[in-house]
Amino acid sequence: MELQEKISVPIFTAVEREVFLQDVYPLRRPAVLRGVDLGPCVERWTVEYLGNKGGNRDVKIHVSTEAQMDFLHKNFVYKTLPFNEFVKRASEMNHTDFFLSEDESYYLRSLGEDIRKEPAELNKQFPALADDFHIPPFFEPEQFFSSVFRISSCGLQLWTHYDVMDNLLAQVTGRKRVVLYSPQDALHLYLSGDKSEVLDIDGPDLKRFPEFVKARRYECVLEPGDLLFIPALWFHNTLALQFGVGVNVFWRHLPADSYDKKDPYGNKDPVAAARALQTLERALHCLDELPAEYRDFYGRRMIQRIQKQTHCDEQNTILPSSPLTKPA
User: Fold this and answer.
1) Residue 244, strand partner residues
2) CB 64 within 8 A of CB 23
3) Exposure of 183 by Cβ count < 10 A (0-12 exposed, 13-18 middle, 19+ buried)?
4) 306: part of which helix (H) or strand (E)?
5) What is the Cα–Cα distance from 256 to 81, expressed in whole angstroms?
């Protein structure tokens, strides 16, 4: 979008663990990591190979006639297909067999065995493919949370959202554009939960979303074999420029008890944050007992108090305590 400030995501080449921990991770900003060894998956994961190795196990997928998938308004349907048939269809632009239309789009986000309790893990859901993918050793093994297998049709765009854990997006095959927004720009993104209501980030309705132009747009194009470091709370929106296969690796960078133990997706707000938001809702209900001018006055005082207590400059972001980080 031309009216937004546009910032290119920096690219680091041949990044090893120490370089990541010392030069990339402490900045708490997105970074493309190029030349990291992801294993033989980059060469092997063709449509034919995936179909043969993945077999005919059923997978639950998203199917949409719209290129811009909208989770808030659900402009897609959930369907089930054998994995090898899904891969075949997702790699095609037009389909002989289809659910909704000849040019429908497909998207797979792998799930745990018990989707209500278990996070996705590549070596459990797709063991025949897992050995091909090497998880970069950029965090401690006990911090690992999930490895999410993703496959999408060419042209498919996923809604803007944030996650509460740090993650690495490995673009194994195909090219993908990723647009990111800083947590500091949250007020310009018209949030509904963890998702932005602005679906079309390239041509937004500025009558509905006039503040969106103030959000700074960080952008990159991932090539096959690239990694993208996405720090927790950074909003991201992806557009598949080609049929593509990727793996998201999430890890707990906060103490384990900071996270909701009943969250298999890793996108529920940390326990303390959820409590604070609930307390805020109760406080707002208390203000409902007052006349409008009093609600306005005390609401402004609350806003001032919250800003004073919590404001953090992006340039002075402080990392949480973690075995990954050392004081400067």
Assistant:
1) 152
2) no
3) middle
4) helix 292-310
5) 35
- Residues 6 or more apart whose CB falls under 8 angstroms from that of 47 comprise 87, 88, 91, 243
Which pLDDT score is estimated for 100? 97
Supply the DSSP symbol for 68.
B
Instruction: Evaluate whether 182 touches 217 at the Cβ level (below 8 Å).
Output: no
Q: For 202-212, what is the mean pLDDT?
A: 96
Sign for the CA dihedral angle at 262, 267, 271, 275 comes to: negative
Tell me the C-alpha to C-alpha distance, in Å, between residue 315 and each of 173, 184, 217: 34, 11, 17
Angle CA 50–14–131, to nearest 5? 30
Q: CB 140: neighbour CB atoms within 10 A?
A: 12
pLDDT of residue 326: 35
Token digits of residue 326? 């050392």
User: Measured between alpha carbons, how far is 317 from 313 in angstroms, rounded to an integer?
Assistant: 6
Element (H, E) at 146: strand 144-152
Question: Rounded to an integer, what is the distance from CA 166 to the centroid of its chain?
Answer: 9
Tens of pLDDT, residue by residue over 79-97, are 999 999 999 999 999 999 9
Residue 319, pLDDT > 60, answer no
Instruction: List pLDDT tens digits, range 130-144.
Output: 999 999 999 999 999
Amino acid present at 194: D
Can you tell me the distance from the alpha carbon of 135 to that of 61, in angstroms, rounded to the nearest whole number? 24
| Cα–Cα distance for residue pair 328/326, rounded to 1 Å | 6
Q: How far apart are CA 121 and CA 123, in angstroms?
A: 6
Rounded CA gap, 326 and 192, in Å?
A: 35
Does 324 score more than 60 pLDDT? no
Once rounded to an integer, what is the mean pLDDT over residues 162-169?
A: 96
User: How far is the CA of 45 from the CAs of 30, 53, 54, 138, in angstroms?
Assistant: 26, 9, 10, 23
Contact 161, 236 (CB under 8 A): yes
Instruction: Report the sign of the C-alpha dihedral through residues 240, 242, 243, 246, in that order.
Output: negative
